[in-house]
């Protein structure tokens, strides 16, 4: 493929493929763009941000076709509002296209997205293509004319977000935002567990009271010598204060809960764990930073933890040895 082509990532709901998206892809190909087009489209039940972020990694621009089918995929408004934070996180430009939607429709789904200038399919495919060509040409021209200005515009935006994040970390407002996201993560966790229960009962326990502190699920176990070991996955909030989250961490741990044959707790057998710190992004959206300072959404963290937990559960059920250490 010739070098120098602008790479577009085309995100859409599969139901819009035949009547609009595939013709749009063909026209963009004719215009000389290199279009990344997923025939499977977006996957129901998966993270919108995760899928689009993955597609954007090798693209210069993201074209997101918003439609009733797109919004019917049951993604939360928080994910939709967080979509355009990818422009900062990934340093890519996202161009929305409204398909079979009015401004009022979009505002009903997400006021943030409605405020964003968009291409509109009702104006015709030619107009949509022309608008995309114009938008990409403008940005590319700005890059060519003044790359230093473009670079520092991005840096200034990042600095402004960081300044706001640092300010919120030491306030009651910031603590409440983090507390709300903790509740959201715990709710996602419980919802995911309810979806995967079967022969494994997977009992869930959480901290008492209205303020979330910890939540855990227990999987299969086994007896060894005079002890019983039960595989456990937990999320716990550490060092949370009502007026500061500067020291707050989210700890995710997989371990064996070790007890004697009468059920009396002996110790915790640590298998593995991760820790995250809260950070604030555009529109004060809370995300979680890993040890490498990479941001993650709550749904992504929960899915990753459950996948790992599931692999260890498979080892337990198949009598395969798992390394752990007492703590």
What does this structure look like?
The protein is of the alpha/beta class. The protein has two domains: 7-145, 3-Layer(aba) Sandwich (Rossmann fold); 172-326, no CATH class. Helices cover 42% and strands 26% of the residues. The protein contains eleven helices and 13 strands. It has helices at residues 17-30, 48-56, 68-71, 77-82, 86-89, 103-109, 111-114, 125-145, 147-169, 172-196, 298-317; strands at residues 7-11, 34-37, 61-66, 93-98, 119-120, 204-206, 214-224, 227-238, 249-260, 265-280, 286-289, 295-296, 325-326. Strands 6, 7, 8, 9, 10, 11, 12 and 13 form an eight-stranded antiparallel β-sheet that branches. Strand 11 (286-289) and strand 12 (295-296) form a beta hairpin. Helix 8 crosses helix 9 (147-169), helix 9 crosses helix 10 (172-196) and helix 10 packs parallel to helix 11 (298-317).
User: What is the helix/strand order?
Assistant: EHEHEHHHEHHEHHHEEEEEEEHE
Low-confidence stretches: none
Q: In percent terms, what proportion of residues is strand?
A: 25-35%
Question: From the helix content, strand content and strand pairing, which structural class follows?
Answer: alpha/beta
Overall spatial form: elongated
Q: Tell me roughly what share of residues is in helical segments.
A: 40-55%
Radius of gyration: 23 Å
**Major sheet, described briefly?**
8 strands, antiparallel
Number of domains: 2
Count, helices: 11
Task: For the record, give the distance between the C-alpha atoms at the N and C termini, rounded to a whole number.
Answer: 55 Å
How many strands? 13
- Average pLDDT reading: 84
């Amino acid at each position: 493929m010739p070098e120098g082509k602008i790479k577009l990532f085309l995100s859409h709901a599969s139901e819009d493929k035949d009547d609009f998206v595939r013709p749009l892809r063909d026209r963009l190909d004719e215009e000389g763009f290199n279009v990344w087009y997923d025939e499977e489209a977006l996957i129901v039940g998966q993270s919108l941000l995760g899928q689009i972020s993955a597609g954007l990694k090798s693209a210069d621009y993201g074209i997101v076709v918003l439609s009733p089918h797109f919004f019917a995929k049951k993604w939360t408004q928080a994910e939709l509002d967080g979509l355009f934070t990818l422009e900062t996180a990934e340093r890519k430009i996202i161009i929305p296209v409204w398909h079979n939607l009015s401004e009022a429709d979009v505002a009903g789904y997400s006021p943030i997205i409605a405020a964003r200038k968009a291409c509109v399919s009702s104006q015709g495919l030619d107009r949509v293509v022309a608008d995309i060509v114009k938008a990409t040409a403008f940005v590319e021209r700005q890059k060519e004319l003044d790359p230093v200005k473009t670079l520092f515009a991005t840096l200034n935006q990042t600095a402004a977000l960081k300044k706001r994040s640092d300010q919120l970390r030491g306030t009651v407002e910031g603590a409440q935002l983090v507390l709300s996201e903790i509740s959201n993560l715990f709710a996602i966790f419980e919802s995911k567990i309810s979806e995967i229960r079967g022969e494994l009962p997977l009992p869930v326990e959480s901290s008492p009271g209205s303020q979330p502190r910890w939540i855990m699920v227990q999987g299969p176990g086994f007896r060894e010598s005079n002890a019983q070991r039960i595989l456990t996955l937990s999320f716990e909030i550490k060092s949370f204060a009502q007026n500061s989250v500067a020291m707050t961490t989210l700890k995710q741990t997989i371990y064996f809960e070790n007890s004697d044959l009468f059920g009396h707790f002996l110790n915790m057998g640590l298998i593995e764990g991760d820790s995250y710190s809260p950070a604030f992004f555009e529109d004060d959206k809370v995300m979680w930073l890993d040890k490498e300072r990479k941001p993650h959404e709550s749904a992504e963290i929960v899915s990753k933890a459950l996948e790992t937990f599931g692999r260890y559960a498979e080892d337990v059920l198949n009598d395969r040895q798992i390394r752990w250490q007492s703590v």
